[in-house]
Amino acid sequence: QVQLVESGGGLVQAGGSLRLSCAASGRTFSSVAVGWFRQAPGKEREFVAAITRSGGNLYYADSVKGRFTISRDNAKNTVYLQMNSLKPEDTAVYYCAAAPQYYGSSYYYTLSQKYDYWGQGTQVTVSS
To answer: Among 10, 26, 109, 127, which residue's CB has the most CB atoms within a 10 Å radius?
Structure first.
């Protein structure tokens, strides 16, 4: 079992920055990959970014490449999502999720059904 708690969301103006944190407890943190997903009102949950167990591989949705950075600190059992140059379309509830299974292809890390554990979400609102 892995318990995940997100924090760091809030209201920011377009062009601003936020850093989300995903704190984990339970299972050895370094044994899980972690992904960030988001869901805007009336839309399906979508992949944002993922980081493998060791942090050696990072994956991003095209919509956030060059603006968002995912990282992890296994000593602190925490994954971060640094979000820069925020746009109104980034407004959503952001969720972190953990995947104990190893996947050899980046494709699987973009699929929400491959993640077994989810946090409660944190709201990010970007005003224009």
So the answer is: 109
